[in-house]
Amino acid sequence: MFKPAPTDLTGKTALVTGASGGIGAAAVAHFAALGATVYATDIADSFDGDATYRAFNLLDNAGLAAAQDWIADIQPNILFNNAAIFDMGSVLDADLDQFDRLFGVNVRAFYAVMQSTAKAMVAAGKSGSIINLASQAGHRGEALVAHYCATKAAVISYTQSAALALAPHKIRVNAISPGVIDTPMWKDVDALFAKFENKPLGQKKQEVGDAVPLGYMGSPDDVARAAVFLASDQSAYMTAQTIGIDGGNVLR
Ligand SMILES: NC(=O)c1ccc[n+]([C@@H]2O[C@H](COP(=O)([O-])OP(=O)(O)OC[C@H]3O[C@@H](n4cnc5c(N)ncnc54)[C@H](O)[C@@H]3O)[C@@H](O)[C@H]2O)c1
Q1: From the CB of residue 76, how many other CB atoms can be counted at a distance below 10 Å?
Q2: pTM over 0.85
Q3: Residue 83 Cβ < 6 Å to ligand 1
Q4: What atom in ligand 1 is closest to the CA of residue 182?
Q5: Disulfide-capable partner of 134 in 31, 87, 126, 155 (CB 3.0 to 4.6 Å)?
Q6: Could you tell me the distance, in angstroms and rounded to a whole number, from the CA of residue 88 to the centre of ligand 1?
Q7: Is 111 an active-site residue?
């Protein structure tokens, strides 16, 4: 009788950025539970999870360079490229300071981490899987979310270019576009919408959950399960794709 291969990350080395956040922490837990050796990084001094942790501020040139050196030492087979920040503003009020912060973390640091990981994989002659965190916001602009949407569109584009460049090295590159996922990021997002749309705190979060075709916000574990699929050999023939984990919010 046919027996499907189990999903197993034993012998793999995974790096997770933004590991203290909702989705990052779930990815660390899932990768570790499936046997991977996990390295985690975020901006906070300490980390509570099943991983070897180092703190880096990826918006800072020295912090980013130190993170890149660390990646060269770790030689990961799996990258969960997840650190990002959110802020709001329309083209009439989203200024260049906000542009520099959002593009600094969500695109510049994202790209540098992906590039260092790819170089380490190629130098070690290792196959690998790179998983980039995009967003439903990367598939469609929003009046009040100009810069963040643009950063996530860039993630989707870099995922495609990197996948094509790295395919000859047996390195797969895919992205996940979460919809609305109940994480610490949503406290800030909800507070910003309360300000911009003149709503009571908590109302926007309730509204976006109710509007999802499946009827509720996703959990970090929903995203981590897709990450496990992309990290494992279950997705061996898949590259250059962006998967929506959004309860049906975006139809492609
Ligand atoms: N939660 C959602 O609804 C949602 C929706 C779509 C996409 N996403 C994306 O999923 C990913 C994870 O989101 P989340 O909801 O878990 O967010 P989160 O805010 O809980 O986690 C993000 C993590 O990135 C870290 N980070 C931010 N700036 C950093 C810096 N300069 N240096 C190092 N680390 C830094 C933060 O400290 C934080 O722990 C992000 O890429 C986000 O854009 C989330």
Answers
A1: 25
A2: yes
A3: yes
A4: 1
A5: 155
A6: 15
A7: no
Residue 123: which H helix or E strand, with range?
helix 110-124
pLDDT tier for residue 109 given thresholds of 50, 70 and 90 = very high
Mean pLDDT taken over the chain: 97
- Phi then psi for residue 127, to 5 deg, are -75, 165
Element (H or E) spanning 52, and its range? strand 52-55
Superfamily of domain 13-181+219-245: NAD(P)-binding Rossmann-like Domain (3.40.50.720)
For residue 4, pLDDT over 90 is answered with no
Q: State which amino acid sits at residue 128.
A: G
84 Cβ closer than 6 Å to some ligand 1 atom: yes
| Helices 185-196 & 203-211 angle (0-180, nearest 10) | 110
In 3D space, the residue among 213, 156, 147, 227 whose CA is nearest the CA of residue 179 turns out to be 213
Residue 252: pLDDT band by 50, 70, 90 thresholds?
confident
Residue 244 neighbours by CB distance under 10 Å: 20
235 CA to centre of ligand 1 in angstroms? 24
Q: Which atom of ligand 1 is nearest to the CA of 137?
A: 6
Residue 5 has pLDDT above 90, yes or no: no
Query: Please, where in the chain does CATH 3.40.50.720 lie?
Result: 13-181+219-245
Say what percent of the chain tops pLDDT 70. Answer: 100
